[in-house]
Amino acid sequence: MKLPLKASTYLATKQLSTANEVQEKYRRNGKAVDKEVRDVLIKRMHEGIDLTEEQEKSFKGLDDIFGGDEGWKDLESPVTGVEMQLKVTQQKRGKRSIGIGRGRGLADCTAEEACAWYFEYCTNERMAIDKEEGNPARLEIRKREKIANEKYFATIKTLPFPLHQREFLFRAILRKDEEGFSVAILNYDENIDYGGGIGKFVRGTSFGIFSAKNITSEGAVNRCELNHKVRAYSDRPQ
Predict the structure, then answer these.
(1) Which domain holds residue 221?
(2) How many domains does the chain have?
(3) Which of 113, 171, 180 is nearest to 141 (CA)?
(4) Could you tell me which residues are beta bridge partners of residue 234?
């Protein structure tokens, strides 16, 4: 005997609802999972990080771009306790002007925790924030040859009308410094299949260095100094 359609629909919905309740009850907290991932990474950071020759050259290239203290102008920072500066490279005829930014501040955590958080771009917490901001895509690209201190990411950022969305493809390289740790951000070129419904977007370019070093603790609170240098632009203006 077949159940009426309404009864079948009700029972199916009820069963799915029960499954969702069980899932929610036993689902692990996303932030707790993120912390466990970072803790494993921090342990690996303490054991040592060996850079490849190509990674060494990548850091050297970024140091050359952001080096020097001339030409920087102070910016009004939207965050108390964070210093921000901007330098615009001299525009050549027929070429775009490109701004380079840098910021400096303090955080109540260790340098290892700060760089691990920055390096792990697709954690549960950061994915949730990105979704709330209305950005349509943020994902990690798995490579066949996996390197422990290097990851590849793709993201699409929503910009105000009439600007098109911007796609950024970048790889993050983690390094242990003499006084702390650094993460280099560099571009890579690849065609990413985001599925349908993304809409139009323009490929953007972004690279930089995020670094952190531990400073003297105030009481029982760990503190570190953060420095972030970035350079970003679009492949064509909109």
Answers:
(1) 5-234
(2) 1
(3) 171
(4) 204
